[in-house]
Every structure is written in structure tokens, then in C-alpha cells.
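Notebook p. 47: complex prediction with nicotinamide-adenine-dinucleotide.
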Amino acid sequence: MKRIALIGTGVIGTGWAARLLSQGCVISAWDPAKKFDTELKKNIEEIWPTLEKIGVSSDASIDNLKTFKTLQEACCDAELIQESVPEDMRIKRDIHNAIGKSSNKDAFIASSSSGILPSDIQGACNNPANFVVGHPFNPVYILPLVEIVGGKDTSQSTIDTFREFYASMNMHPLVVRKEIEGYLSDRLQEAQWREILHLINDDIANTKELDEAIIYGPGLRWAIMGTCLTFHLAGGRSGMRHMLEQFGPALELPWTKLKAPELTDDLIEKMVSGTSEQAGEKTVKELEKLRDACLIEILQALKKFNVGAGKYIQS
Ligand SMILES: NC(=O)c1ccc[n+]([C@@H]2O[C@H](COP(=O)([O-])OP(=O)(O)OC[C@H]3O[C@@H](n4cnc5c(N)ncnc54)[C@H](O)[C@@H]3O)[C@@H](O)[C@H]2O)c1
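Predicted complex, C-alpha cells below:
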């Protein structure tokens, strides 16, 4: 499938546009924001040199980006539609209703939602069997993971179609077997995020210390093996079994606080001032460029050993 409509061109829609263009797709895009077309083109031109470093297909061209003034025009000829509008159930349902009225009944439709149950969106679709959540990760043009989540009316052939399509875009499709709020990756991230908020709220650490606790240690390992296989190695020669025997009892200790703390003004202020102090003089844009440059080096290093996300870049 090469004719793709993108509905919503904020952070995630722009990321999809860049990745899909780089793999030779023809994109028709729409967003309600004024001047979204010039902003989208400008952002993709800025991202393109980064894409060239990790591999652009021979038929790829920025000229394959077409923008439209209405959702109807963007959707009418598309084989696949990827929606990336705000994470708000009312907006999602309205937009999927409009997509249903404007698109071919055979078109495959995905929402980039970060946590909404697909069953709660697909009721608004014209053809619910052809709908999934296709949850990507920012920046979509570099990170290969995309979670595919079907709802109660999604057909198996639709799941298979999306798995093949995303794989053909050099992505790692991870099919979530049963729909659940937050899917897999965001549930893992949310657990850590909740713990961070508690540790800050209780004045045990600041944001810089908590980030140091990740980036110089566990964070480096996660890109290679994830948590489970990393802990298998923590058990020495007997692997996971010994690891569980040794550290299992700690699960009974009060090491985690599962319930999220209240987001008081004081907690919000600590999070905001802590992270802005860490950023120092650097703007978000500058930090994004720094992050992207580092991610590419990491991916290229992983590629040398054919592990983790390194398997998904061409050069
Ligand atoms: N930002 C992330 O890290 C991330 C990661 C994965 C998935 N997502 C998901 O992707 C989706 C989009 O998130 P984002 O971060 O790109 O948001 P964003 O705010 O950057 O972009 C949303 C876009 O939707 C447009 N929009 C606003 N109101 C609209 C409406 N009523 N109808 C149609 N379009 C409207 C805006 O003009 C904007 O361009 C959300 O479902 C979000 O949960 C976000």
C-alpha cells in the first residue's frame, strides 16, 4: 500500500509523514490548523537529512507530500488512513465518523492513540472490521516500534494487513493480543512515571538525580535487551530462576507505590523547575536535535551487533 492519508499533522502526524515519505509512500495530509501545509513541509525538509542517514528508499521524494483543505479530499483516494488528532474521545469519534463518510469502504484505518481502547473508537467507523490502533513512538521517523491493537470488531486480516504494512515501513509491529488501556509500552512507562512522581513528591530525589539513575545504568541496557532478558542475566548462570529466588522476596517489601500521587501545585512546580534547570540554555528544538543525533548513533552501534532497534535501519 502506498497511498496513505494522514489526518492530524502535529508532532505524531509529522513523524508519520516523514517516515512514510522516506519509504516511498504518497501522502495526502489534512489538519484543521491554519497554514499546517507550510509548517508540515518545513518540518519534513528539516527532518529529511536525518532520514537520509538511516536509509531512504529509491522511490522516496518529499514531492510525494500532498496537502488538502478538507478531510474529505485527503481521505477519498487513500488505501490506508492514519489518524493522529488529539487524545480526546469526542474528537477521535467525530473524526472517525467523518473519515467513514469520506473514504473508500475497503480502506484500512488506524488511530495513533496512546491508550484509548480501540473498541471505544471503532463504533464511530463506517467499517469497524478495518480499524486498529497503530500506536507509534516519538520520533516516529526514527523509533521503529508500533503497537497494533485490535478492538472487538477488528478482523484478523486487518491486523495482518497492518502488521505487513508497518513492517514494510521498516517498523517493528508489536501486536497486543488483548486490548487494554495504555497497551504495553505506555503501561510500563506509566509505572515508572508514577514512581518518579512519588519520589519527587516525597522529596527523596530531584528530577536530575532520577534521570541519572536511568541514563548511566539501566537505560543503556534497555535498548539492547529490555527488562526481562536483562534480569535473566542478573541471575548469573542459573538465569531468571535464581534471579527470582534472590530478589523475589523484595516484591513483598514496600519498594513501589503503585497508586499515583495527587498532582498538587507543589509537585507540578518541582517537576517543571527541575526539568527546566536540567535543560539549562537549550530550547526544546535544540534538545530534539541532540536527541535525534544521539539516537542515530545508538541505532548504528546496535546495527553493528544486529541487536534491538539496530535491525531496523538500512545504513
Ligand atoms: N506526542 C507523543 O509522544 C505521542 C506518542 C504516540 C502517540 N501519540 C498520540 O498521537 C495523537 C496525536 O498526538 P500529538 O502529540 O501529535 O498531538 P499534537 O497536539 O501535536 O497534534 C494534534 C493535531 O491535531 C490537530 N487538531 C486539533 N483539534 C482537532 C480536531 N478537533 N480535529 C482534527 N484535528 C485536530 C491539531 O491542529 C494538531 O496538528 C494522540 O492520539 C496521541 O495520544 C502521541
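Notes: Strands lie at 3-7, 26-30, 65-67, 80-83, 108-111, 131-135, 145-150, 172-176. Residues 93 and 123 are 8 Å apart (CA to CA).
Next step: compare against the earlier run before touching the bench.
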